[in-house]
């Protein structure tokens, strides 16, 4: 390996992360200058938006339920506006791969046969410094056709020709996550804006030259004002690069409960750059628990594996999403199929049956496409949507005028069937510990019990446990009160049965307990976990 490169730093910019070969290609003067401009222009408003989140949670805790906003009623009732027409490469999205941007996954995703790929710098990734820089470098190399990878076993991976590749849609980190390795004027920058700037400057023009554009998935927003902040970033970035306004397109994940009440407003704020909404089901469940965690028995969510997409509050959310998108000319994207193939034929058959049923429901409900976490599931998802779409690229004409969802329907957690059980509690501890162990070493997409899990899984697990402790929940199967002490005991029991040695899980256990049994609820487990990373 050659010597580490030297960066050309704009005034006021510091890069504290170690520099490896070719990092200067991504951490270019142009990229760092854009990061500085974005930070100086937007960071204060980003921090204000995070404070607004906290204020809203306090209002809910004090008894004021979420509702559709009166001050934006005119936006919702104005039937005349539409989002921008679907951009090149985004008309047909019937199946989208998801996954992190390491070299092997990038190649597998681009060779998967999917119509689009969510190239994930967020929940299926970790913000380890090497991932922050190497991810956009891999994407740039894949666009150039030079990316390859050789496994430890000697297997070679190469990217398919561009004509066979899915459209790349990059998911940057959420507004809450900082980037501690890049400072502007002595302040930590926004992980969101860093990921946006690095990809835009390295790959934006390359994508335009290929007939696509720089496309993004925007995660974890909680209000239309946060979407407005993204729109400002897009305008600034396009002006900075000298590309036409509207070249950037964004699909917003509706994966927080507050955002479900502002879907139309989010599309409106981004309308010149908008390409749709996505039903981010697991983060949405996490947000439901998080937002109403102190409101008692009516908001206790049963074991995770019993909360399907057909329970009333989840059904209301997804149907409203399809209606909202198609009313405004935007794509409605379905949720994740997390199943992964195994060597057991019976297990595989059950997995494919579940994926088929889930995607059939989505296609019949009007979704234009959906997500899969493994290339082996692409064909199944494609075939289901093909049966509904036929030769059409989407079903935007299916406006779902029959759907009428009110606030009570979105908040109807009480009608969810199922129980809180000791088996479910143990499963939460098991999954959270296994996931955190991998996350802390730099891997954000982890196969656990034949499912591909990301950060949302661990967030659900630890949030359920925190809520159960704080609300004196008793397990239905054993009649045991869930307490901090019992969770500590179960954690040790679970670790004893996990692969490896108990010592392998020490950091994961400390992080898990920090966010699962503490008196104060941590907004995101990735924040204290990120502090543990170098």
Q: In summary, what is this structure?
A:
With 534 residues, the protein is of the alpha/beta class. It has 19 helices and 15 strands. The chain is globular and about 65 Å long.
Describe the protein.
The structure is a single chain. α2 (29-61) runs antiparallel to α7 (224-241). β7 (178-184) and β8 form a beta hairpin. The protein has helices spanning 23-26, 29-61, 73-77, 103-110, 129-144, 191-209, 224-241, 257-260, 263-269, 281-291, 312-327, 345-365, 378-389, 407-410, 422-439, 455-470, 484-497, 506-516, 526-532, and strands at residues 13-15, 95-100, 116-120, 148-150, 156-158, 167-171, 178-184, 187-190, 215-218, 249-254, 274-279, 331-337, 369-372, 446-448, 451-453. The mean pLDDT is 96. 46% of the residues lie in helices and 13% in strands. The strands form four sheets. Strands 6-3-2-13-12-11-10-9 form an eight-stranded parallel sheet. A three-stranded antiparallel sheet has the order 1-7-8. A two-stranded antiparallel ribbon has the order 4-5. It is an alpha/beta fold and 534 residues long.
> Can you summarize the main beta sheet?
8 strands, parallel
Q: Specify Rg, calculated over alpha carbons.
A: 22 Å
Quote the average pLDDT.
Answer: 96
N- and C-termini, Cα separation: 22 Å
Question: What key attributes describe this structure?
Answer:
534 residues; alpha/beta; three-stranded antiparallel beta sheet
Topology:
Elements: E1 13-15, H1 23-26, H2 29-61, H3 73-77, E2 95-100, H4 103-110, E3 116-120, H5 129-144, E4 148-150, E5 156-158, E6 167-171, E7 178-184, E8 187-190, H6 191-209, E9 215-218, H7 224-241, E10 249-254, H8 257-260, H9 263-269, E11 274-279, H10 281-291, H11 312-327, E12 331-337, H12 345-365, E13 369-372, H13 378-389, H14 407-410, H15 422-439, E14 446-448, E15 451-453, H16 455-470, H17 484-497, H18 506-516, H19 526-532
């Amino acid at each position: 390996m050659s010597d580490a490169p030297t960066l050309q730093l704009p005034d006021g910019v510091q890069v504290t992360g170690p520099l490896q070969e070719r990092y200067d290609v991504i951490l270019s003067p142009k990229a760092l200058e854009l990061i500085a401009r974005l930070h100086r222009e937007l960071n204060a408003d980003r921090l204000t938006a995070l404070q607004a989140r906290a204020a809203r949670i306090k209002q809910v805790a004090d008894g004021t339920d979420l509702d559709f906003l009166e001050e934006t009623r005119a936006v919702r009732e104005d039937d005349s506006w539409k989002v921008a027409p679907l951009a090149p490469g985004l008309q047909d999205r019937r199946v989208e791969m998801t996954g992190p941007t390491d070299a092997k996954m990038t190649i597998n995703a681009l060779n998967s046969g999917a119509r689009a790929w969510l190239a994930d710098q967020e929940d299926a990734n970790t913000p380890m410094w090497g991932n922050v820089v190497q991810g956009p470098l891999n994407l740039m190399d894949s666009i150039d056709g030079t990316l390859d990878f050789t496994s430890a076993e000697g297997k070679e991976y190469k990217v398919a020709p561009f004509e066979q590749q899915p459209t790349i849609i990059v998911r940057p980190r959420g507004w809450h996550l900082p980037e501690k390795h890049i400072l502007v004027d002595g302040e930590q920058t926004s992980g969101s804006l860093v990921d946006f700037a690095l990809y835009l400057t390295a790959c934006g023009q390359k994508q335009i030259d290929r007939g696509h554009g720089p496309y993004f998935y925007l995660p974890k927003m909680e209000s239309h004002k946060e979407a407005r902040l993204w729109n400002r970033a897009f305008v600034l970035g396009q002006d900075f690069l000298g590309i036409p306004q509207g070249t950037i397109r964004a699909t917003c994940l509706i994966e927080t409960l507050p955002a479900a009440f502002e879907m139309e407003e989010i599309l409106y704020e981004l309308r010149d750059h908008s390409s749709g909404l996505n039903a981010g089901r697991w983060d949405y469940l996490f947000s439901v628990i998080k937002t109403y965690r102190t409101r008692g028995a009516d908001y206790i969510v049963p074991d995770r594996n019993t909360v399907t997409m057909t329970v009333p509050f989840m059904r209301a959310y997804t149907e409203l999403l399809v209606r909202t998108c198609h009313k405004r000319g935007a794509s409605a994207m379905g949720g994740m199929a997390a199943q992964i193939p195994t060597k057991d034929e019976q297990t595989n058959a059950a997995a494919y049956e579940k994926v088929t049923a889930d995607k059939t429901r989505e296609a019949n409900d009007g979704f234009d496409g959906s997500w899969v976490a493994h290339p082996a599931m692409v064909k199944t998802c494609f075939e289901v949507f093909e049966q509904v779409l036929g030769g059409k690229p989407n079903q935007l004409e299916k406006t779902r005028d029959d759907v009428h969802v009110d606030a009570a329907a979105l908040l109807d957690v009480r009608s969810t069937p199922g129980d809180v059980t000791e088996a479910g509690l143990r499963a939460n501890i098991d999954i959270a510990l296994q996931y955190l162990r991998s996350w802390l070493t730099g891997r954000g997409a982890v196969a656990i019990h034949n499912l591909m899990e990301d950060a949302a899984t661990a967030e659900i697990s630890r949030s359920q446990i925190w809520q159960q402790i704080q609300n004196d929940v008793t397990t239905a199967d054993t009649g045991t009160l869930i307490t901090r002490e019992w969770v500590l005991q179960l954690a040790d029991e679970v670790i004893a049965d996990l692969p490896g040695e108990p010592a392998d899980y020490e950091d994961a256990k400390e992080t898990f307990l920090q966010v699962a049994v503490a008196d104060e609820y941590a907004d995101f487990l990735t924040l204290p976990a990120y502090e543990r990373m170098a």
